[in-house]
Design goal:
Elements: H1 4-9, E1 33-35, H2 41-50, E2 55-59, E3 65-70, H3 82-85, E4 87-88, E5 93-94, H4 99-109, E6 113-117, E7 123-128
Parallel strand pairs: 1-2, 5-6
Antiparallel strand pairs: 2-3, 3-4, 6-7
């Protein structure tokens, strides 16, 4: 049976209003571009260029985060696969972090976005620093 942290990290309900404090999974946007290892740069280039984030994610069939494709990786042979041009394993944060904890982390590293995943690495989405307020 999962513990409270696992329930929160997966966005599952908890009992009582005070038991459900604000967590970053509620702020995560799932509109980031995703692709599979075998998708080619040519297949995903336009979607990533049109994205407000400046990157896309490579995920497995089960949604597990495998890597990141930055816009800078798109200036190559369009027949190369995502697996060939991705940056493996971007850093992620747990979904049960409080917005204040995440803001502190982003500020400390001067980052615009945080990648949020479940405890087993499934992509939940992206949280921007601006979504955290303050």
């Amino acid at each position: 049976m999962p513990g409270k942290e696992d329930w929160l990290a997966r966005g599952l309900p908890t009992e009582g209003e005070k038991a459900d404090p604000p967590r970053v999974w509620k702020l995560a946007r799932d509109d980031v571009v995703t692709c599979s290892l075998s998708d080619t740069v040519g297949e995903v280039r336009e979607r990533i260029l049109a994205s407000p984030y400046g990157f896309g994610f490579v995920v497995s069939g089960s949604g597990c985060l495998l890597g990141r494709m930055r816009k800078s990786a798109l200036d190559c042979d369009p027949s190369l696969t995502a697996e060939q041009v991705m940056e493996p394993g971007p850093s992620t944060v747990r979904a049960d972090l409080s917005p204040d904890e995440l803001r502190e982390r982003l500020d400390k590293k001067d980052l615009k976005y945080a990648v949020v995943s479940t405890p087993d690495g499934v992509l939940i989405g992206v949280v921007s620093r601006s979504a955290l307020g303050g």
